[in-house]
Request: fold
Amino acid sequence: MTTVTLRIVLLLSVLQRLAQGVPDAVAAKHQAAQLREQYDFVILGGGTAGLTVADRLSEAKLTRPSAETVLVIEYGDIEYGRGFFDPPQVEHAPGFPGASRWTFNSLPSPHVANQTAKVVVGKVVGGSSCVNGQFFDRGSRHDFDAWDVATGVEQFDRGEHRWNWEGIFPYFKKELGIPIRQECAGGDKAGLCWVPTSQHPTTSRRSHSGLGHYADVNATRDNYDLLVRHQAVRVLYQDDQVQGGRPPLVEVRSLSDGRLFNVTARLKVIISAGALHTPSILHRSGFGPAEVLQKAGISTVVDLPGVGANLQDHSASIIQSNYTKPLDLSPLPSDMYDPAVIADATAGFAETPARGPYTLAMRNSAIYIPLANMSADFESIIATIKQQLAKPPSDNAAQYLPPDISTSRAMMAGYQHQLALLLELHSNPSAPSLEVPFGGGTSLSTVNLHPFSRGSVRLNATHPLEQPVLDYRGGSNPLDVAVSAAHLRYLRRVLSTPTLRARGAVEVAPGADVATTEQLAEYARRSVHLSLHHPCCTAAMLPREMGGVVGKDLKVHGAHGLRVVDMSVALLLPSSHTSSSAYAIGEKAADIIIQEWT
Reply:
């Protein structure tokens, strides 16, 4: 039996036990008594980035011959990560069985007809990589170059860690182990792209960090512990040593009995709870806007107004159409309702290698179009961005920031900096502004890849251990509505192509009567989906003077022994689904830490 075959057999065994509901299919700790007296690294959150950095740190030998001890604290448990279309699923439905998840409903956004955002994130070992749509694309090189652009703060610019495309591209490759190619995964992302999916290449089961960075390595690592069904409450500094001395203690709450206890880290505490939960841990620890903390009755340890601010997510409007001359092909999606087809497809999915329609993971192609190629609206949108930049921050940035930080000079400076970066991105004929994923059916989504509006994640002041309050503030910067209208106008041209005209494509929504820019903008306001489940940027990598929370080494400003490693550290939302970026951040963070300690 070859090594590859053996790994597949072992993987299938683990998957089968997890599918049967066996919680100990992979070893995990369930109570404080099972833990060591102390750990070298304590990681708060066992999601996409958290398990990636835990894997890399537990295999490294940093300060002594034996590898360092690593503890991951995870709210959820080990579960089977069902794929997007695993049998017997015929079509995707929001409530289909799968791994556990958090579901958030944001506050209403008055600028887009009081619509709310519904956001789903993973509540399971593996995090959102266990529940996402398995679309595994990368952002444009221009996205990451914008993360690393000169800020004018000399100490921040002088750092050795680069987060531009050249600085992060090796970590995308390390995760997948693929050669360099000139393709959409190589940084150039404008046009029609084939998009890989996060699946095992043989079994077609969902690939997620709970398998690749925990289950696959745990049996050979006696220094790697995972504590499940526990909440990381906060970090605690002793004797005013927030700027020096030992790393903080970690206060942990058992979900089974509510008991609180502390965990000691010898080298570093790493918060990796995701863009929606990392701010809550920081808030409960006394890091955040002083006004927000005061309302929750929490003493301020470090006043960082950027904690929980800068919330971004992809949004989309939809063009609906009918086809009067359907495709004469077989099989069609409708054939999956035939019991005989379902039975054969289910049997094929169980084979090794898997075959048939259930091996599909949502979609595998999309078009990416720069705003500069949408000539009808490009110049007016660019002119508006320049007008906003020409105003003093107090007259411009303040009105687009959440009210509780709108008077912060640091936050105003940071938003103006982002606006300048967005001007460059939207002016660039190679940097995509629009994504249109293809997956069959009669609807086309206009995904806004680089939003201008900024929301917030705030601690629930009356119930601080419960889920935070999300305020997406969709459309608070009117540029988002203008960009969405431009995307809708451009996408209409797809329906007029010879291919779709031959199929009798007829637009149903917004419809032929919605023709002017103002009408398209109003349609966008009332029809927009505010979240595509890609929240980011709530602990941004910027200088403290610009509202940043972490530096380029991912250390929390003003705090010793504390880092953040997840999508919350991104400055701008990348032009991609966020899974691959979360893996890459985890890989690069581990490299930074290993270099520091060796």
Summary: The longest helix spans residues 409-427. The chain has two domains: 3-90+135-187+195-309+536-597, 313-527. The longest strand covers residues 315-323.
